Amino acid sequence: xxxxxxxxxxxxxxxxxxxxxxxxxxxxxxxxxxxxxxxxxxxxxxxxxxxxxxxxxxxxxxxxxxxxxxxxxxxxxxxxxxxxxxxxxxxxxxxxxxxxxxxxxxxxxxxxxxxxxxxxxxxxxxxxxxxxxxxxxxxxxxxxxxxxx
Amino acid sequence: xxxxxxxxxxxxxxxxxxxxxxxxxxxxxxxxxxxxxxxxxxxxxxxxxxxxxxxxxxxxxxxxxxxxxxxxxxxxxxxxxxxxxxxxxxxxxxxxxxxxxxxxxxxxxxxxxxxxxxxxxxxxxxxxxxxxxxxxxxxxxxxxxxxxx
DNA sequence: TAGTTGTTATAGTGCTACTAGAACAATTGG
DNA sequence: CCAATTGTTCTAGTAGCACTATAACAACTA
Lengths: 149, 149
Prior knowledge:
Two copies of one chain form a homodimer. Chain A is mostly helical. Chain A contains five helices and three strands. Chain A has two domains: 13-81, Arc Repressor Mutant, subunit A (Orthogonal Bundle); 84-128. In chain A, a hairpin with a 3-residue loop joins strand 2 and strand 3 (73-76). In chain A, helix 1 crosses helix 3 (50-62) and helix 2 packs across helix 3. Chain A is globular and about 55 Å long. The first copy, chain A, starts with 12 loop residues before the first helix and ends in a 21-residue tail after the last helix. At the A-B interface, helix 1, helix 4 and helix 5 of A face helix 1, helix 4 and helix 5 of B. Chain A binds a DNA duplex through residues 12-14, 38-40, 48-52, 54-55, 57, 68-74.
């Protein structure tokens, strides 16, 4: 998996790395067991410090996305195996919270509910890599997202 | 309008203030022309420094939500009047971007597209203060949101 | 004129992001 | 076993942001 960062971005480097790994997990480009570049090699590739990459990986480890073992490296974890119902409920609450914030700001800007929902449907389709109308299975829909952006 | 802050929160104080004003604008609790507490008085009420409130108001001014004039105070702006089509398009792009991020993270956590969309519909309804089934007008739906949370 | 308001300037504290160098411990492969 | 690689931990420094603190200045109101 190719990881790229934007040094001029406001977003911290370690969060950019995190986002891209999460993105890879979401699209299926990264499967459980896949090896990720080592802390040192990725740091060299990106031209950043070792500790910055280490922090990104540590966050991903705390979130259950990867497993780190010294001497062996970093690999994608089987997140489904370590998912407690409480954790899922927390994720759901956080998502609901974030969606509410977006909807409120959209309304404050004069946007309509319909516009918000049509964008939500559009972006959900992009994230899941399907046409907005279809109803695919939930599991594994590898990469292939020829969306704009 | 009553503004409250949580000093123990991770979110910066000035952004907490901003969010609550935006929330007020969204629900209609704050109408164009309404006066907001002065920088100094709100700072005293909240127990924070004047500059913290000033920064919050400055952000709101830059976003077009309020107008500040020295000697007179701060009032809610008529945002619709100062909304260029380009600005609206930018807002839309940002929202789409944020929604895509949320959808991708949701998928990375193993969540389904259907779950994401049902939450989006639910929270949009909460933000617009209507039952999820109805199709109300876009404009003015004052406060009244007896949702959980 | 006096009081209130936003505006600006300087300065200090604490925290986070990032960099830097170094050493240590577990694991792997020759 | 030995050397290389990997994650882990430590100390330390720079830069920027959030917040506080004083103070002065400028525009508006009563």
